[in-house]
Amino acid sequence: VLSHTDLKPAMVSAERCRQAICDTVICNDDNEALQISASFGVASSTQCGYQAEKIVRQADKYLYQAKGQGRNQVVSILNTVTV
Description:
By secondary structure, the protein is mostly helical. It has one domain (about 5-75). Helices cover about 45% and strands about 10% of the residues. It is built from 3 helices and 4 strands. The protein has helices spanning about 5-25, 45-50, 50-70; strands spanning about 25, 35, 40, 75. The protein has a two-stranded antiparallel sheet with strand order 1-2. A two-stranded parallel ribbon has the order 3-4. The radius of gyration is 14 Å and the shape is elongated. The two termini are about 20 Å apart.
């Protein structure tokens, strides 16, 4: 949750988080590097009103849309944004 943040800056923040997660090297017990990724759904109060439950529900919808589109991306009403 990013208070006092419009949708586009929230998308940029989510994309930075996604990229940081993807850039993190994690090794298994055999010291083999594992590829990890992250998907984010972003919604805003200007889109959904100021009801927290509604905002979370919309963000969850976009999260599942991101996963359905191949994962490892940020999705909102603006669709996918890259930094």
